[in-house]
Amino acid sequence: MQVCWKGVMPAVTTKFTENDALDLEMFEINIRAQVEAGVHGIILGGTLGEASTLTDAEKKTLVEKTVEIVDGKIPVILNIAEQTTKGAIDLAQKAAEYGASGLMMLPPMRYKANDYETVTYFKEVANSTELPIMIYNNPVDYGIEVTLDMFAELAECKNIQAIKESTRDTTNITRLKARFGDRYAVFCGVDTLALETMAIGADGWVAGLVCAFPAETVAIYELCKAGRMDEAIAIYRWFMPLLELDINPQLVQNIKMAEVATGIGTEHVRAPRLPLIGDERKRVQKIIDEGVAARPTLPAYKGIND
């Protein structure tokens, strides 16, 4: 199906059993909760999805299962985080075969490519597929920044259509919109900056805590886009301690703990990740417990921007 680059797109966690196999039963529960809340797309195999630990067979299963669950209601997007151009092209082509509607792409993994190499990498993958692409720009975690000049070069690839902006610099939203207008859809990729960036023109939010709190996340987006900022801010202020769990090296463990608290996930992670222990676990659990206890009553937000 066609990707409409706007709205809330969860970077969903990958569910595992205690025996380290895919937990498709709990995965389906979570995906259905996302769809029911009104998300606008599903992103698989991102940082939260523990992409670096997944086998090709598991990626295939996750895409095919998600396509089956969403049943044409929203697009399914697969993240590409590969070490080689050849591997990225292969996965892009397989994603289309599996039924994915689009791709999200990080720069090359492990090797710190220069600007020319990074642009060439993106172009070669884009030219190998008809699927639309979102570039994931996260120099904080992955060491390579895709600059405005690099996006100017990438604009020749018509299927590079969106940007996940995770530089932590909110002024980049304005810079991108000022330079490129509507050439690229721009998504916030940092939970703690979401409302601010949408207020200044971001088209959507690739979210993390949405995995545990889908309705609250979509409500913030819909209210913001409807100009009902006071209502959006009230929910956002409640949400902030939870959103800060996303900007942490153990974000996967944090968010999976939150999913347990809201009944739509398990805590199982894939080694070398391990569940939190000790004082840090107590700290995170306290934030989650307090957030769940104070969970706001949401206004009717569905359809207010139709």
From TrEMBL:
The active site is at Y136, K164. The keyword Lyase applies. The keyword Lyase applies. One of its GO terms (molecular function) is 4-hydroxy-tetrahydrodipicolinate synthase activity. Pyruvate binds at V206. Keywords: Lyase. Pfam families: DHDPS (PF00701). Belongs to the DapA family. This is Dihydrodipicolinate synthase family protein. It comes from Sediminicola luteus.
